[in-house]
Amino acid sequence: MRSKNLKILAFFLLCIPFDTAVAQSGGVDYPYPVRFFNLTIESKPVRMAYMDVKPAQPNGKTVLLLHGKNFNGYYWKTVIHWLTTKGYRAIVPDQVGWGKSSHPAIQYSFHRLAFNTKRLLDTLGIQQVTVLAHSMGGMLGTRFTLMYPGTVEKLVLENPIGLEDYKTFVPYQTIEQQYQKEKSATPESYRQYQKSYYPVWKPAYDDLVRVQASDLKSPDFNAIAWSNAVTYQMIYEQPVCYEWGRLQAPTLLIIGQADRTVVGKNLLSKEEQAKHGRYPELGKQTVRQLKSGKLVELEGVGHIPHIQEPEPFFRALGDFLR
């Protein structure tokens, strides 16, 4: 009987939020206190890190921010500040497998990440959100909206990847091949890749390189590298671009017109690279498939509008939220 009671207690503890705030973890200071939500995934206890930032004068609305593959909640700091000054509560998770969250060896899927995120919202007592999703977060935000349409009031996709089906033109690589690539990463290789996000590189952008490169010094780097490899496979094998017509929520596409991001681009010839990742065309193609869609095109802007050109980004976001 005692053994059974202990098992029940352990399960209960894993299902409740763990609200210990931390100032620093993984060598990176986040802009707001970080809390942890405990989950069990495939019999493994894991922690999901998140920031819950409440405004001084709340308007009753909440925005859920979903990060991209090479990022975490840290890079939303200016967006969090903007939202909270407008009265919005900001919920900013590091998805399991990223940032300050656990990096378990599990089967990653957008469905599972969406499920984890919904459990977090439920635990916090949040019934409805606007989803703001960037890059890979756009694929997750789309899946989340499809799975939980009653939860999502509006959807904002900021230069999402997955506007095309990569597996139809990018050569297949095994998880083991991707893992070896992740294991060989260096701060300079991260910098070179992040340079592709912007038409013109500025020293200020090195801050995001620093954050990404902090993983290289982590004692859990092997687990991080494996998660990075498996989630590359997730993007490759789980497209969302065939389901735009199923979205019911009003959807805003903010598309930097200089973006040419393709997941697996280095595996393509120069000729093939030129055919894909053409965001000006992909944005127009996508918005035509949406039931309630709006497209804002930002000229001369690359993959991360909220970092490169915050003013037009916030103008577009503010108009849509109103």
UniProtKB/TrEMBL annotation:
Any Pfam family the entry gives: Abhydrolase_1
GO process annotations (BP): acylglycerol catabolic process
UniProt keyword list: Hydrolase, Signal
Protein name in UniProt: Alpha/beta hydrolase
Organism whose genome encodes this protein: Larkinella knui
Gene Ontology molecular function terms on file: monoacylglycerol lipase activity
GO cellular component: membrane
Endpoints of the signal sequence: 1-23
Domain AB hydrolase-1 stretches: 62-203
